[in-house]
Specification:
Shape: globular
Strand order of the largest sheet: 7-6-16-17-18-15-19
Strand content: 15-25%
Radius of gyration: 24 Å
Distance between the termini: 41 Å
Structural class: alpha/beta
Length: 564
């Protein structure tokens, strides 16, 4: 919640804005993408060669798009629909302009590689109405049955400002926040690596909650409780308390939880537009070629049911139609748990320690429910108080976070009645959409007894529980304490020269392979790693003036912790 606990390290003294380059592998993906020389080239003898791209989410579509530009022929497999967790849906019988973001719905300006593709396809963004953000008319914080109405942090009781100060001190004293923030802004790689190596060694075994509880700034349980329920950036973070503190530091160092913007018309437009887009500059293919045009009927192939190795290092793919095709290279961009369950896989696809890392991946659950309403009635003023009749709401009740989304005072609007994670998400799992809505309306009725939300609802609710989606099994990865080594194995898998020859040729990418899972930027960055890996696998190279992530790997490689 941006103003409840202000992000530390705001730009000062003319420092540049921060990006989600991150401390683990500070490669400048945005500069790499923006360079006139492009991402690299492959030998002409490889032009037109098919490469399997498994998964049509953002990472898979970016991977396929960039491989196509190099002259390869990506063959995309998708079990459900293009977009993955960039999933935008409408409401039956309602204005088609009313949209609900079931997955990613808000993106920080620090996601500069993501922004490259948003700009490329001509999409617009606008400020997202997070708690107490300038884009939010008002916020209500409701804890233990007591509600506080606020437009800024100063409108809340002093204890909330005390919690904000405690979080700031906790970061400064326990995580060298100011120094790291400045090093990331200036891309001072030696300094980034020096600080992060120290912190990884000291904090890899520490939970988020343990980090707080061990700080003198948070010696008060009351302050820790309020912080967990109200949090910073987007709301309460108590569902993250069991996770590694390193995961949280990656978020706050890069301001990933701040200054969010939404994509006008819905985030799923991004992968869909990339799918249809004909690049202005591409190799081998004729002008006008797009990913859609390279696929029969303009659609990706179906779900992958089996992956195995065949003679000569081939990656053989079986899909749900029974079709079998063999490729010299493949990129897997889905949730890694699918390789353990939904897809029959040869163990020889990956080294055994990588299988262990995939098995140990920890996913966060997440659920949302949206309803369409006739107008943004929450902007009506209470005649007695002059306040908005309803506000963006953070609460310890079942709903946890309620977001109000509109396109103007006279147009239909959308309410995200509840957005929850982990245990809070699991509480909704057995309930139907209608049952969920009833519980949510009852919960909000306790906070707003004089507001009849139901009479404004004009259509049926739409909902998702990502842990119950068969091709996802969770919303996003969040490492537990001690998982740093596992994540390093998965992230660095695109560097394959050190692997046995019979373990090469298939590359991992996607949200859960990145260091910044839960953010679309990580999906883009790992896609670019995989593109470099495939290019290198075919004997290709980058331009000397624009080295890629693999070219600079030895310089930037993530900290390697001992395993003995």
């Amino acid at each position: 919640m941006t103003s409840t606990v202000p992000p530390a390290g705001r730009p000062a003294g003319g420092l540049p804005p921060i990006t989600m380059v991150g401390p683990d592998f500070p490669f400048p993906y945005d500069d790499y993408l923006g360079h006139a020389a492009g991402l690299g080239q492959i030998p002409a003898t490889a032009h037109g060669t098919e490469v399997a791209v498994i998964g049509g989410g953002l990472s898979g579509i970016v991977t396929a798009y960039e491989l196509m530009k190099m002259g390869l022929k990506p063959v995309v497999y998708e079990a459900d629909q293009i977009g993955g967790r960039l999933r935008t849906v409408g409401f039956d019988g309602c204005d088609p302009g009313l949209r609900a973001e079931m997955g990613a719905m808000r993106f920080p300006p620090s996601s500069t590689s993501l922004q490259h593709y948003i700009d490329l396809v001509g999409l617009q963004t606008r400020p997202f109405p997070n708690p107490l953000s300038p884009a939010t008319p008002s916020t209500v914080v409701d804890l233990k049955g007591e509600s506080h109405y606020a437009r800024t942090l100063d409108d809340l009781p002093q204890v909330y400002r005390d919690v904000a100060d405690a979080w700031q001190r906790c970061l400064d004293e326990g995580a060298e926040f100011g120094d790291m923030n400045e090093a990331l802004r200036t891309r001072d790689i030696p300094r980034i690596r020096e600080i992060w190596a120290r912190l990884v060694e000291r904090l890899d075994d520490q939970t988020f909650y343990g980090f707080l509880a061990g700080s003198e700034a948070f010696r008060s349980f009351k302050h820790r409780e309020i912080f967990g329920q109200v949090g910073f950036g987007t709301g309460g973070w108590d569902t993250d308390f069991p996770n590694s503190i390193l995961e949280i530091l990656r978020v706050v160092y890069t301001e990933a939880d701040d200054h969010h913007r939404g994509i006008v018309g819905g985030s799923q437009q991004l992968p869909l537009r990339l799918w249809e887009r004909a690049p202005g500059k591409l190799v081998h293919w004729t002008q006008g070629t797009s990913l859609a045009s390279l696929h029969e009927g303009g659609a990706p192939r179906g779900a992958v049911t089996r992956l195995h190795r065949t003679a000569g290092g081939g990656i053989t793919v079986t899909d749900d139609s029974g079709a079998i095709r063999t490729y010299p290279a493949a990129v897997f961009t889905g949730q890694s748990w699918l390789l353990l369950s939904k897809i029959a896989c040869d163990e020889t696809l990956f080294p055994m320690d990588h299988w262990t890392a995939m098995e140990r991946t920890h996913y966060m659950e997440s659920s949302k429910l949206f309803v369409p309403v006739d107008r943004p009635f929450w902007l009506d003023k209470d005649p007695a108080t002059g306040r908005d009749r309803m506000s963006m709401t953070l609460t310890d009740r079942m709903t946890r976070g309620t977001y109000l989304l509109d396109d103007g005072p006279d147009k239909p609007a959308v309410i995200c009645l509840s957005y929850t994670w982990c245990d809070d998400s699991l509480k909704w799992l057995p309930l139907s959409p209608a049952e969920r809505m009833e519980v949510m309306l009852a919960s909000l009725g306790e906070i707003y007894p004089d507001v009849d939300i139901r009479r404004h609802i004009i259509g049926s609710p739409v909902t998702v529980s990502w842990e119950n989606e068969p091709w996802f099994m969770g919303a996003f990865k969040a490492n537990l304490p001690g998982h740093y080594r596992y994540q390093r194995r998965l992230f660095t898998h695109f560097m394959q020269e050190g692997l046995p020859a019979d373990r090469r040729g298939i590359f991992l990418a996607g949200d859960d392979i990145s260091w910044t899972a839960g953010w679309a930027e990580g999906a883009v960055q790992t896609a670019l790693n995989a593109v470099w890996g495939v290019m290198h696998h075919f004997g290709g190279t980058t331009d000397p003036t624009n080295p890629g992530p693999g070219d600079r790997f030895d310089e930037l490689a993530p900290v390697e912790l001992p395993e003995d």
